[in-house]
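User: Structure please.
Assistant: Input sequence and predicted structure:
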Amino acid sequence: MLLPTDLTRTTCVIGGAGFIGRAVVTELLNLGRQVVVIGRNAKPVEMPEEVYYVANPGGASTPIIKQVLEAVSEVIDLAYATSPQTSFQDPVNDILVNLPEAVQIFELAATMPHIRKFVWISSGGTVYGRTTASVINEQHSTMPISPYGITKLAIEKYARMYFETKQLPIVCVRPANAYGEWQRPYVGQGFVATAIASILDGRELTLFGEHGTIRDYVHVSDVASGIVGALLKGAPGEVYNLGSGTGLTNREVIEWLTPLANEAGFELHLRVQPPRAFDVPANVLDWQKLHLDTGWQPQVSFAEGIARTWEWFVARHATAISY
């Protein structure tokens, strides 16, 4: 297994082949970092050549993880095996496939004093639960109503324990709803991707409630730069929201997409269903703490981001390349 020899500017991205992970890897490479990606499958063809890629289907308990952590000075952990929607199908499985893995990584990293920073990616869209607040800051109560959110919050508590008891320099980041190029549709997470793919595939798109839910949509490139900002300048032991501070309903997202679809000759087939009990009505994040500590702020407007995302999906659709 080929790994970098220079610890000082080497970052390990666990889950770096995923949707957000790809963007994080690009951000790190642009900053001149050496990057080691740990993924469960073989190296994707789209992965940059200069990335050190380690396939590790066995999870956190394998010797490979220890070898990689010994060769890096920074860790960003994006790995997670479920989504908010799928977590309801088997809540016990949601715990078993996510919680032990995260704690094992924390336990191992805490034994390695050369690790300068560890960033664990939580979920700003699920850990807070129902709220009447128009914008949610990090001091807001956490009362998740999905197994996914409950497990994410539990892992945050373990992260805090390792910071307090073993001085693991860990930061937790709570992103809002990421969207953009490379997001997979039809997986129960990512309304923008599913809406676009449904239009292009001629599939019916379901809206739960007349307007759907209100969510804080952040382009994946901004999510990546925020995560890297937390890596470089975030304070160990802290939790940071990563959002835009602006909410859009599902119907408003559709209204942004409709003229793009019409111009390209596509139609939207929409079906409205009753609201679902497990959907949080509104979730919009206050990102000022991350801005104050790291200088980060979102750069991609929703107008620009939705246009870029639409164009990417259209290009893939035109060449019959899978999402």
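The radius of gyration is 19 Å.
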